């Protein structure tokens, strides 16, 4: 297998297309991830119930752990859902977001855009429990996917399955995260390009943005709203947020990294369609949120999701499943890491 793949890997490296490197082949340009990479799926596809014989307790382990962690800290589901997105968007759903930096340079999780990602410890803990029961069977990438699924369910979102069988990558570059994660200041053109680059379309963009119905946001991530380009249409709400962010402790800055508020203030702890309602009211927190309503291309879908929670849920599930297939490593490629933070 290794020798068969080698010429392809060399060709792709020479073409400066960044391809996730499997255990079988390393790009000579190790330490850099410049250029476009393909997130097209190769090899065997994922399957629903992939571990039903090899690790039948997997689903219960993940569900129980996430329930426990959520009881300890209600912010857990949002953080795990975001972690899955950041894994998939940067080089594919192969758990590279979980890897620690090593001699090759800073890893994805140490990129500036990853600074507010949290709950890596939850995945590490689930992995340790899974390893104790099913050693060497379940990838960190699949644990991350399942964690996202159970997180959504636990806070009132749709109950759904995700296909499994991902294997783990073992390279992770901060530059990949920097290049591919969307920015809060993006408007619809940039968002569509960003999502389009990895094979996600306009419906995926709007549906997946609905994840912002839960969780929190730092003031820094909507500071641009006060600089003219996409102000809060609800002026009073914008003013309230401005005061909230300005009056923080000893810091003279509007937006300190430490101050947070809810992503969606109507029902912040529930996964529902109120994010879209908030957008129609001019209360989207980030430019990238509000512009989905401001732009004629995405507004109809925002309105449709705001009016019909089930339509949003169905679309969200499809888009999550689609996102979860981005750039996956399957079959005999990649590895099953023993610890999610460490390359084997
Ligand atoms: C459309 C482009 C997107 C942009 C620009 C974006 C950006 C951001 C930013 C800046 C934050 C706030 C981080 C902080 O201040 O701590 C955030 C939070 C969050 N994002 Fe996104 N995101 C996008 C799409 C997504 C997608 C597709 C998902 C999942 C499917 C997602 C899930 C979340 C969640 C759940 C939170 C709350 C995290 C927490 O409570 O700590 N986001 N996002």
Task: Note down, in words, how this protein is organized.
The protein contains 13 helices and two strands, in the order H-H-H-H-H-H-H-H-E-H-E-H-H-H-H. The chain folds into two domains: 39-181, Peroxidase, domain 1 (Orthogonal Bundle); 188-322, Peroxidase, domain 2 (Orthogonal Bundle), CATH 1.10.420. The longest helix is centred in the N-terminal third of the chain and has 15 residues, at 58-72. A two-stranded antiparallel sheet has the order 1-2. Helices cover 42% and strands 2% of the residues. The chain is an all-alpha fold. Protoporphyrin IX containing FE binds next to helix 3, helix 8 and strand 1. The site of protoporphyrin IX containing FE has 24 residues, from helix 3, helix 8 and strand 1.
Topology:
Layout: H1 2-14, H2 58-72, H3 76-89, H4 120-133, H5 140-154, H6 174-180, H7 188-196, H8 202-209, E1 216-218, H9 235-246, E2 260-262, H10 274-280, H11 287-294, H12 299-307, H13 309-323
Helix pairs in contact: 2-4, 2-5, 3-5, 4-5, 8-13, 10-12, 12-13
This protein binds protoporphyrin IX containing FE (HEM).
Protoporphyrin IX containing FE is lined by residues 75, 78-79, 81-82, 85, 116, 182-184, 186, 191, 208-209, 211-212, 214-218, 221, 263, 288.
Which key phrases capture this entry?
mainly alpha, disordered N terminus, Peroxidase, domain 1, Peroxidase, domain 2, 2 domains, 344 residues, two-stranded antiparallel sheet, binds protoporphyrin IX containing FE
